[in-house]
Write a structure and sequence with these properties.
By secondary structure, the chain is α+β, with helices and mostly antiparallel strands. The chain has one domain (5-139): YjbQ-like (Jelly Rolls). The chain is built from 3 helices and 8 strands. A hairpin with a 2-residue loop joins strand 5 and strand 6 (111-112). The longest helix is centred in the middle third of the chain and has 12 residues, at 62-73.
Length: 140
């Protein structure tokens, strides 16, 4: 593997509702520009204290199930010590402890080597901040 490094930051609007947003196509588009068919590593990072990156199945209900599970584990109520923002916003600051703000994925022949049903998904439960950055970095 060479030591070629490329990075790009994308602006993403997630909206005011919690979301599991599939960003796989954006990752592939980035790799088409920079990987040139090479092998390497793609790092996907969301530089926010209230969002995460998951590699999960989408479209068959798993993304909705993940959000439902997070609602159960992290209810939007007044139990949280972190109290600025909307009611229950403290839970959003705990989210990255469960869904890390990054994923590093293998790239083979210029494409992410995902499993058949896997997608790269931005998880955002914070309706207070509908504008996000997504940093994509390729080393290959």
């Amino acid at each position: 593997m060479s030591d070629t490094f490329h990075t790009q930051t994308l602006d993403i609007t997630t909206g005011r509702d919690e979301v599991a947003l599939d960003v796989t196509d954006r990752c592939h588009a980035f790799l088409r520009e920079v990987a040139d068919g090479r092998d390497g590593l793609l790092n996907v990072f969301v530089p926010h204290a209230t969002a995460g990156i998951a590699v999960i199945e989408t479209g068959a209900g798993s993304d909705d199930d993940l959000l439902a599970t997070l609602r159960e584990l992290l209810p939007a109520d007044d139990r949280w010590n972190h109290r600025h923002g909307s009611r229950g916003h403290g839970r959003d600051h705990v989210l990255p402890g469960l869904v890390a703000p990054h994923a590093t994925l293998p790239v083979i022949g210029g494409r992410i080597a995902l499993g058949t049903w896997q997608s790269v998904v931005l998880i955002d439960t914070n309706g207070d901040n509908p504008q996000r950055k997504l940093r994509l970095s390729f080393l290959g």
